[in-house]
Amino acid sequence: MSTTPETAPKRGSRLPRLARRAQLLEAAQEVFVANGYHAAAMDDIADRAGVSKPVLYQHFPGKLELYLALLDTSCEAIVAAVHEALKSTDDNKLRVAATIHAFYDYVANAQGAFRLVFESDLTNEPAVRERVDRVTHACAEAVSEVISADAGLNREQSMVLAVSLVGMAQVSARYWLASADQDSLQQQNAADLVASLAWRGIRGFPRSEN
Predict the structure, then answer these.
(1) Using alpha carbons only, what angle is made at residue 38 by residues 35 and 44, rounded to the nearest 5 degrees?
(2) 17: burial class by Cβ within 10 Å (0-12, 13-18, 19+)?
(3) Is there a contact between 42 and 54 (Cβ–Cβ < 8 Å)?
């Protein structure tokens, strides 16, 4: 459940440290997603969480550290989802579909965490750029391992194909969310359409007999 001024704990209420940290991250995500990094203020995040600024600073020394902690959580979520999709079946057609759907699920999440990863307004900050690049690389690495093992391609060849699949998934998912008529093209159908395109391409590299 999202934190709102009505549901946020009253100032002064005590929570275990981990619970308080989770609460602050949830509030920060709402503010950063709504306003972007530059327009977000620590005052706004503290108000959203129902705490004082000193309490916020006890957990995070500054706005950048708070943003990076939230970005780490968001990056880990999509990487974990891709790994889970790849492990969900040994059928490569279904693997492709599951991976595409993982990106669509991530982008369609009402919390909007994907905007921190794929639409950040702070990519000129090296620590942010490194994390954004790392999530794409980590997802592609996971996909490339399957491609290499099944098609007998070397790492460089497998990574080019994997990066292409990851890029197709996340860019199309973001386009669908922002631009598509979601009544006529629902999430399931959009992801299936892109999965079909991806499979028609990747199936041209047959399983290796080695």
Answers:
(1) 55
(2) exposed
(3) no
Q: Let me know: does 22 contact 2? Beta carbons within 8 Å.
A: no
Answer for the pair 202, 146: CB distance below 8 angstroms, yes or no: no
107 alpha carbon, distance to own chain's centre: 7
* 7 class by beta-carbon count within 10 Å (0-12 exposed, 13-18 middle, 19+ buried): exposed
Measured N-to-C along each axis, helices 155-179 and 92-108 cross at an angle, to the nearest 10 degrees, of 40
Task: Give the three-state DSSP class for 152.
Answer: coil
Report the C-alpha gap between 173 and 103 in whole angstroms.
7
Cα–Cα distance, 31 to 168 (Å, whole number): 28
| pTM score of the predicted model | 0.84
Question: Residue 125 carries which DSSP code?
Answer: S
Chunked into runs of 10 residues, the chain (210 residues) has average pLDDT values of: 50 74 93 94 94 93 94 94 96 95 92 90 93 94 92 90 95 91 89 96 71
List of residues 6+ apart from 30 with CB closer than 8 A: 2, 3, 48, 111
CA distance 129 to 125: 6
By C-alpha distance, which of 156, 166, 113, 104 is closest to 135? 166
